[in-house]
Automatic annotation (TrEMBL):
Top class in the EC scheme: transferase
Gene name as annotated: adoK
Span of domain Carbohydrate kinase PfkB: 38-296
The keyword Transferase is annotated on this UniProt entry: yes
EC number: 2.7.1.20
PANTHER family with a match to the protein in the record: RIBOKINASE (PTHR10584:SF166), SUGAR KINASE (PTHR10584)
Keyword Transferase: yes
Protein name, entry field: Adenosine kinase
Length: 318
C-alpha cells in the first residue's frame, strides 16, 4: 500500500551500535569493596547481541514504519556500512550521514548481570565530529536536535534556526552536558522542548524557571512520564495524554525515540499537537514490547488500526 507524501524531517543526532552482553552471575560476587582501588576483573559473557541504535537512527527507523520522510544528519565511522545499507533498504535518505575517515561509529558496550546491574563503556568515535556535518542543504520542513556531541547539537540548532526551520530540542542523554545558560541558549533557538519527567525537573532547576514558563516561549513542551502517559504544554494549557496499554513490557530502550518519531510524523502531517502526542504515545507503547530499539516491525496498517482503537484517530490514506 502506498503511503501519503509527508514533508521531510531533519533528524540531527547520533547513529550508534549497542553491544549488549549478559554475565550469568552477580558483579558483587567478584568485586571486593576493599579492593576497588586496584580493580581488575574479567567476566565471561556467553550471551551477546549487537543492536542498531543512536537517537537519529532510532527516530528515523520509527518514522519509516509510519511512512514518514526522515533525513538523518549524523556522523559515523568506517564500520557503518551495514547500518547505512539497512537504513537505505528501509527507504531512508542517508545523504547527510557523513562517514568520518579513520574512526569507529559511536558504540556503547553494556554488560548486565543477573541482578540487572550494568557496567557500561561508551566510545563516541565519529560522533565527536558531528559539528562538521553541514545540514545547510538538507531538505526539511521540521527538524529535531537529539542527543549528540554538545558542539554538534549547538551547530545543528544554529543552522536550523538560520534557515527558518522549526525544530524540537530533545535533551535526553545529553542532559549532563548542558548548564542553565546552555539550556537558555538552545531554548532561544528551538520551537519545541521534549523531556522526560526527571529531565523536566533538572531543566527547571538549572534554568530557575518552571516548565510552564518555559513553554510560554515555545510552540509546545512535552514531558513524557512512562506508563503514566505524557503532558503537553501549549498555548498556556496543560493537556494530559493518556498512555496506551502496551502488549508487553520487554525493554524500554529506544521508547523515547519512538515517541519523538510519532510526534514528528504528526507534525509533518500538519496535525494538532495533542493528536501528534497521541500518535507518539502509541509508538512508544509499540516499541516497549520488543527487545532492542529497532526490532519491532509493526506495519503502517497495524499502527493505524491501533491508533483508531486507542484514540479514535485515523492515519491518512494514500
Amino acid at each position: 500500500m502506498a503511503h501519503p507524501v509527508t514533508a521531510p524531517v531533519i533528524i540531527c543526532g547520533s547513529v550508534a551500535f549497542d553491544t549488549i552482553m549478559v554475565f550469568e552471575g552477580r558483579f558483587q560476587e567478584h568485586i571486593l569493596p576493599d579492593q576497588v582501588h586496584s580493580l581488575s576483573v574479567s567476566f565471561l559473557v556467553p550471551s551477546m547481541r549487537k543492536e542498531y541504535g543512536g537517537c537519529a537512527g532510532n527516530i528515523a527507523y520509527n518514522m519509516r514504519l509510519l511512512g514518514g520522510t526522515p533525513v538523518p544528519v549524523a556522523t559515523v565511522g568506517e564500520d557503518a556500512g551495514d547500518y547505512l545499507r539497512r537504513m537505505r533498504d528501509q527507504g531512508t535518505n542517508t545523504g547527510w550521514v557523513k562517514i568520518v575517515p579513520d574512526t569507529f561509529t559511536a558504540q556503547c558496550f553494556i554488560t548486565t548481570d543477573l541482578a540487572d546491574n550494568q557496567i557500561t563503556a561508551f566510545h563516541p568515535g565519529a560522533m565527536s565530529a558531528s559539528a562538521t556535518n553541514d545540514l545547510s542543504e538538507a531538505p526539511g520542513a521540521w527538524g529535531i536536535v537529539a542527543p549528540d556531541a554538545k558542539d554538534g547539537m549547538f551547530a545543528h540548532a544554529r543552522r536550523l534556526h538560520a534557515r527558518g526551520i522549526p525544530f524540537i530540542f530533545d535533551l535526553g542523554q545529553a542532559m549532563p552536558l548542558f548548564s542553565g545558560e546552555d539550556l537558555e541558549q538552545m531554548l532561544g533557538l528551538a520551537q519545541v522542548l521534549t523531556v522526560n519527567d526527571y529531565e523536566a525537573h533538572v531543566v527547571e532547576q538549572r534554568t530557575g524557571r518552571s516548565m510552564a514558563d518555559i513553554a510560554r516561549g515555545l510552540q509546545a513542551a512535552v514531558i513524557t512520564r512512562g506508563e503514566q502517559g505524557s503532558t503537553l504544554l501549549t498555548g498556556g494549557r496543560e493537556i494530559s495524554i493518556a498512555p496506551v496499554q502496551a502488549e508487553a513490557v520487554v525493554d524500554p530502550t529506544g521508547c523515547g525515540d519512538a515517541y519523538r518519531a510519532g510526534l514528528l510524523y504528526g507534525i509533518s502531517l500538519g496535525w494538532q499537537w495533542e493528536d501528534s502526542c497521541k500518535l507518539a504515545s502509541l509508538m512508544g507503547a509499540i516499541k516497549i514490547a520488543s527487545r532492542g530499539p529497532q526490532n519491532h516491525h509493526t506495519t503502517r496498517e497495524e499502527i493505524g488500526a491501533l491508533l483508531e482503537r486507542s484514540y479514535g484517530l485515523a492515519l491518512p490514506q494514500a
